[in-house]
Request: fold
Amino acid sequence: MAVDSFDSTTGRPIFLDGGAPDTGVDPTAVGIYAADVGNRIMRANLAGLGSYAYKRAGLRGDALDTGIEYRYSGSGWEPVGGKTPIAVLRRTSAALVAANGVPSGNYTNISGTAAWTATGGELRGFTFDSSGLTCTVGGLYWASWALWVNGTPNGVAGIAVNASNANATTIHALSHIYPSIIATGAAGAPVRLAAGDKLTFWAFGNGAALDVRATPTGTEPMHWGARWIAP
Reply:
């Protein structure tokens, strides 16, 4: 029997007496029940969930490309489980910047794609290109980084959001790189991101250039990125 119309809120099929033969079953009641208990959909990606015509608060959806599970809040899809968004980029053997040194006295963007890789790390719910890490799912994230530096220089590093130029007031997870047998630095901080926000990694040499180590692809512990905490 043909469907006469669909409910504008749930998408359940509606059958009219004049439009379908009487089978002894109330098909509309069946449709109501199916819409009531069928509160989950699956789509190829987040864009597919976004284009679903019958979104309503409480609806769950799975994005098959990432494995992230979402709940529709009434205004947007929010991660609730499964594989949540994460970006952990590992250091490679490629030069970080010119001569692999971060100049003294200036913040330098060290987010270059050749110098970092998701191999050995993770990249889900983000895209990564020469301009940095772009968030595709808004929420509260933990941004973090860790660096090794050759020699015994010192400086600072941190992660900026939507910054073409960085300074101490625009960087999150800002912390020192300490001179020692191996000069190291690491930090993390919560940051609120919207879809489309871009993360970049910056460092600052203090008194001398920072010679950031190159490592085989995917080797711990050097990294930078962010992981989802909550909507």
Summary: DSSP finds two helices and 19 strands in the chain. The helical segments are 27-37, 46-50. The CA atoms of residues 141 and 228 lie 4 Å apart.
